[in-house]
Design goal:
By secondary structure, this protein is an alpha+beta fold. The chain is 44% helix and 17% strand.
Length: 229
């Protein structure tokens, strides 16, 4: 069915204007970004095909390479770029909201919930640092290094420099394991000990190192695996 064959109140643009963006499905919002369909396929069908390919999850769609998006009929380079930019803006908006949330971070579960949007579904490791004040309130968070599927090296000097610049009294180190197991390897243990020692010289505390997998995490401070349902 073509967009113009729909009742005006059910067309994505008109529906958004009348009811607001929150009342549109993900596919309908994607339809607005795409603008139009292609020969033999309506824009809503193109959008639904994209959502189906991502298992119905925007997080998966958001990390698809441009080349993969462009492989769908009706999604050229310009539209692939628009989709990727829009989904990245959504991810950043979520991150900003988390930073503005003035709760103190006191458990590895809170770290997991905070960082999962950045680290879920990645096919490589990334190392992030949460910079906190002495009351455990989040000052900012920053990706420090990005590595291969199996490992990433900690940039100790950069972490020290950024913590001093931000006047952060304590930090939490976070990285992901694309393999699915959050348990630390020997390299994780050695690098954590090295970072803790370096931070201690300038009286900055390493509160925790949390390794995140898809539905679980490992906390160095509590020496345990936690599972999220």
């Amino acid at each position: 069915m073509r967009i113009k064959d729909l009742h005006p109140d059910e067309r994505p643009r008109e529906k958004m204007r009348l009811r607001g963006a929150r009342n549109l499905s993900n596919a309908e919002l994607l339809s607005i970004l795409l603008g139009s369909g292609t020969q033999g396929k309506s824009v809503t069908e193109v959008a639904q095909e994209l959502m189906t390919s991502a298992g119905g999850r925007l997080a998966v769609l958001g990390i698809m390479p441009l080349e993969q998006l462009m492989s769908f009929k009706g999604v050229g380079e310009a539209r692939a770029i628009i989709l990727t930019a829009a989904l990245e803006l959504g991810r950043r908006a979520f991150a900003e909201a988390a930073v503005l949330d003035k709760r103190s971070i006191t458990t590895p579960e809170m770290v997991y919930q905070l960082m999962l949007p950045q680290l879920k579904h990645l096919d490589h490791e990334e190392c992030w640092v949460l910079f906190l004040n002495r009351a455990n309130y989040l000052l900012s968070k920053e990706m420090i290094t990005s590595g291969s599927m199996e490992s990433t090296l900690l940039d100790t000097s950069r972490i020290l420099k950024r913590a001093i610049e931000k006047q952060s009294g304590q930090i939490i180190l976070v990285h992901n394991h694309p393999s699915g197991s959050p348990r630390p390897g020997q390299a994780d243990i050695a690098q954590t000990a090295r970072l803790k020692k370096a931070l201690g010289i300038v009286e900055i505390q390493l509160l925790d190192h949390v390794i995140i997998a898809e539905d679980s995490f490992y906390s160095f401070s509590e020496q345990r695996v936690g599972r999220m349902v």
